[in-house]
Design goal:
By secondary structure, the protein is an alpha+beta fold. Helix content is 38%, strand content 26%.
Length: 305
């Protein structure tokens, strides 16, 4: 259950008090089945899997939750084809082409008839809350998916003033400097992936993978004025990731020194395995996020920020 991407949000200290009732709050917003005429539903599901009723897994100040959704698959091309066929039938029988108002009604009829027969696609998204540090961490690199997760928690709590992580220091400027000067903060080393862009509108883009980032080739691009919009990094030899200029973490991977810790533990059940993985992951990320605060000047928001 290790997260592979991180979209990061911060919330003020006052929110931590309301998290004491988190289990009860999310229970009232449990995912329900998608109705025959509904396009989609969303709600909380168990992070343990479909055969467990618990909606929260708590480990110290960390609370793991899963947001599920059900979406009916009704492709627009299928609807359009059926509407076109019905228009042709009307034209053949009545010798006229339906107007805009009638075409709209035909489309609504087709959707109403086809929706109950459409396949339902389930999905789930993991996230966790750090009450102590004021972090909301979503396992997604998609801004929309992450914002939807924030909205779901806000709906359950009634109030959840979480904002996307933003630094006082420009991540792009810092990453470009790290790459150009080769002087990184303690514990941080360069990976083998970078995306360099000319900051001018419609400027050139260079993407390197499995590349020595200290090579002359990369330095030439920097001399030409390109900046690091994404940069591969390794933290304390314990995890590797690609950091974006928006501070979204992609391709997160825990390294052997961390994974070996899990391998040495005796896990009696799926619940025990999830508990062990989540405890380890949340503590490892706590150390990384503490460094993010220092590197990029990220302060926990106050009540009125």
């Amino acid at each position: 259950m290790f997260f592979r991407n991180l979209s990061l949000f911060r919330f003020p200290e006052s929110v931590a008090k309301s998290l004491k009732h988190l289990a009860k709050d999310v229970e009232e917003h449990r995912l329900r089945d998608c109705g025959p005429l509904e396009l989609a539903t969303r709600g909380f599901i168990s992070p343990y899997g479909r055969n467990n009723e618990a909606l929260i897994h708590a480990c110290g100040p960390f609370s793991l939750l899963a947001i599920g959704s059900q979406e009916r698959l009704l492709p627009g091309v299928v609807v359009a084809e059926e509407v076109a066929e019905r228009i042709d039938q009307i034209a053949a029988k009545q010798g006229r082409r339906p107007g805009a108002k009638e075409r709209k009604r035909l489309k609504e009829e087709v959707i109403s008839e086809f929706l109950p027969r459409a396949f339902v696609r389930p999905s789930r998204l993991l996230a966790y809350l750090d009450a102590q540090g004021g972090w909301f961490v979503v396992d997604s690199a998609s801004r929309k998916a992450a914002e939807d997760a924030v909205s779901q928690v806000r709906e359950a709590l009634g109030r959840f003033p979480a904002t996307p992580m933003a630094g006082a220091e420009s991540p792009r400027a810092l990453m470009t400097d790290w790459l150009a000067q080769g002087r990184l903060p303690a514990g941080l080393t360069l990976g083998d992936e970078v995306e360099l862009r000319d900051p001018a509108e419609a400027g050139a883009v260079v993407r390197c993978r499995r590349q020595d980032l200290e090579s002359e080739e990369v330095r030439e691009h920097l001399k030409a004025g390109k900046q690091a919009f994404q940069l591969g990094l390794t933290f304390n030899d314990r995890m590797s990731f690609v950091l974006g200029e928006d501070l979204t973490v992609r391709k997160l991977r825990f390294l052997d020194i961390v994974l070996d810790t899990i391998g040495e533990q005796d896990k009696e059940s799926a619940e025990a395995e999830l508990d062990a993985c989540f405890a380890l992951m949340s503590l490892e990320l706590k150390a990384l996020l503490a460094q993010f605060e220092q590197w990029f000047g990220i302060a926990r928001p106050g009540e009125h920020d």
